[in-house]
Amino acid sequence: MIKVTAPAKINLFLDILGRLDNGFHSLFMVMQSVDLCDEITVSKGNGGIALTCSDSRLPQDEKNIAYKAAAAFFKATDIQPDAVITVEKKIPFEAGLAGGSADAAAVIVGLDRLFGTNLTKQQMCDIGLTVGSDVPFCIRGGTCIAQNRGEILSEVKPLKDCYIVLAKPEKGVSTAAAFAAADSSYIYHPDSIRMLDACSNGDFEGICKYAGNVFEQVIEVVERVEIKDTMRECGALLYQMSGSGPTVFGIFEKEEDAQACASRLKESIADVYVTKPVGYGASVI
Ligand code: C5P
Predict the structure, then answer these.
(1) What are the DSSP E strand ranges found in the chain?
(2) Residue 15: CB within 6 Å of ligand 1?
(3) pLDDT at 284 over 90
(4) If you take atom 13 of ligand 1, which residue's CA is the nearest one?
(5) Are residues 29 and 125 in the same domain?
(6) Count of Cβ atoms closer than 10 Å to residue 237 Cβ
(7) Is the CB of 168 under 6 A from ligand 1?
(8) Rounded to the nearest 5 degrees, what angle is found at the Cα of 225, between the Cα atoms of 242 and 38?
(9) Which of 93, 100, 103, 148 is the most buried (most CB within 10 A)?
(10) Residue 195 phi, psi dihedral angles, 5° rounding
(11) pLDDT band with cut points at 50, 70 and 90 for residue 172
(12) What CATH number does residue 14 fall under?
């Protein structure tokens, strides 16, 4: 049996640049892995793909992205499907934290080890992209610029050690609906050049200053103002929505500030986590 840890991600930056010929959007993002992780196990069974997930609200069959990732792995490697997959959920879903993509990434990494296929990271990313745009980043992990659909990845300097509070309001957001809302709105574009410069130089202050997420302009999350207020009052250097939301993250230099912020947020928000940035994606443990 192979055990794989699957870190969540946040978007330090997310801009929509245009529409690609394949219908997807061309993006410019800065992605960061954090140590809020699902745990996936893969082992061989009696043929076929079987999946169980600790959260009964998620599909336990071929509709689950982790199942789709296994099917894509077997198709790409020409191996007869044979996998028993378990998914232990810690990352909230429909949260803007790539919880599903992290599971898919972990399945591909785990099956590569289980079957000794020795795929390169790029080959695994190529398989991952067939099931979701964020899967390649979830395989690579760390701190990356992500372009095009999200699959063109360039590593930048690791984010300085810090504490990242995640607060997930109850109501989930559909990514497809978020893109549709962005398509029908005028969008103000944040400064990607200055953000790129800050990331390339490992300039933490610059990253906090030039961060941005265009989905905040088109996705209403009622709790967002209150969450951001609390984060600011507790000393966050940056507070912003991740992905298409609804999760809001706050970045703190001091652990006590992050913990104090999390305690206050827990009075009104059920899902609150204190995390740290990590320099890896889906990894066998
Ligand atoms: O690839 P994924 O399944 O994560 O995409 C979820 C939704 O977001 C889809 O509706 C897809 O069209 C949209 N999307 C997009 N452009 C991207 C990534 C996702 O339009 N670069």
Answers:
(1) 2-19, 25-43, 48-53, 82-88, 143-148, 152-155, 163-168, 212-213, 238-241, 248-252, 271-275, 277-278, 283-284
(2) no
(3) yes
(4) 176
(5) yes
(6) 18
(7) no
(8) 30
(9) 103
(10) -65, -40
(11) confident
(12) 3.30.230.10
Q: Distance between CA 96 and CA 219 in Å, rounded?
A: 12
Is the same domain home to 200 and 93? no
Active-site entry in 103, 134, 168, 228:
134
C-beta of residue 52 within 8 angstroms of C-beta of residue 60: yes
- The tens digit of pLDDT for each residue in 30-75 reads 999 999 999 999 999 999 999 999 999 999 999 999 999 999 999 9
User: Is 171 an active-site residue?
Assistant: no
Query: Residue 127: which domain range?
Result: 2-155+280-284
Of the candidates 68, 81, 66, the one whose C-alpha atom is nearest the C-alpha of residue 114 is: 81
Total number of domains in the chain: 2
Cβ–ligand 1 contact at 11 (below 6 Å):
no
Task: Assess whether 138 and 218 both reside in one domain.
Answer: no
Joined together, the tokens standing for residue 145 give 């610029």
